[in-house]
Amino acid sequence: MLQLDKARAEDRRKLEALLWENGMGYADPIEDFMLARQGDDIVGCGRIEDYPDVVMVRPLVVAESFRRRGIGRLLLERILPAGKPAVIVARGESVSFYSAFGFTFADWQTIPIHQAHECTTCPDRAECCPQPMVYSL
């Protein structure tokens, strides 16, 4: 049975492994992550960074073998705050997921500057095709 809850210190090793397997990095504090658990396994995670005008989803990850089961949607529904736009830089293959949730294409100016710079200078940019997107209620 799938369970959503906040990450705890003892989850760090499994959380880092899930992120690494999906080309993402880990950032403290661990308590900022919402986890999707299936038994003892962490099968998904999401975290938001709060800025004055927006929140940024960074990252949202679902283990490949658990995709297309609604886990990403459940995580987004749990972590997105009401009343504040959310932004994300979607990787090429995930754009359709975020579009189906209600995100729309946005300009790079909507993305916090450090994230926009990270994407602009990333050596994998051509491969991942980053797309800024925004979600407004």
UniProtKB/TrEMBL annotation:
GO terms for molecular function: acyltransferase activity, transferring groups other than amino-acyl groups. InterPro entries: Acyl_CoA_acyltransferase, GNAT_dom. It comes from the Bacteria. Residues 1-137 form the N-acetyltransferase domain. It holds the Pfam family Acetyltransf_7. Signal peptide: none annotated. Transmembrane segments: none annotated. This is N-acetyltransferase domain-containing protein. It comes from Desulforhabdus amnigena.
